[in-house]
Amino acid sequence: MRKLGLALFFASLKVPAFAAESEFFFSPEATNTAVSSVSSAAVSIGYVVQLFFSLVVVLGFLYLTAKYLLPKIKTSNKSEHIAIADRLVVEPQVTLYIVKAAKKSWLISVSNKAVTVIDKFEEGTF
User: Residue 83's closest CA among 65, 107, 101, 64?
Assistant: First the structure.
């Protein structure tokens, strides 16, 4: 199997020389194409290396951006006057929240269909 592969390889190298000697089988344009196909393989490898290098550069840029720049850009959802004191998931789409604002608190039920105030508390009640 190895000998057959080597024989085909050497035969493919001799094809352009054979084509140049015999004008009966190939036209001059076909001969030039056959000769350039050997050199285009080396050019193709260069393009693959360039593509791989470009991919590494782009992925590196994305990694550095995600690691260092995005954490600085993130905005904070902190509020001075309103805070969620506690949260309890009752069902897959129903959640209870205790929301504090100023000196008052509310127990709120939030579902995918409605938001309901269940109870109101004063500070220090619970």
Answer: 101
Provide the CB-side half-sphere exposure for 1 (13 A, CA): 0
User: What single letter denotes the amino acid at residue 105?
Assistant: S
The region that residue 124 occupies, defined by phi over 0 for left and psi between -120 and 50 for alpha, beta otherwise, is: left
**Type and span of the H or E element at 89:** strand 82-91
Per-position DSSP letters for 3-61, written without gaps between them: HHHHHHHHHHHHHHHHHHH-TTT--HHHHHHHHHHHHHHHHHHHHHHHHHHHHHHHHHH
pTM over 0.85: no
CA separation for the pair 10, 4 (Å, rounded): 10
Which 3 state secondary structure label does DSSP give 126?
A: coil
- For 99, residues 6+ apart whose C-beta sits below 8 A from its C-beta are 82, 83, 84, 85, 105, 106, 108
Q: What is the pLDDT of residues 68-93, one digit of tens each?
A: 888 788 776 777 888 888 899 999 99
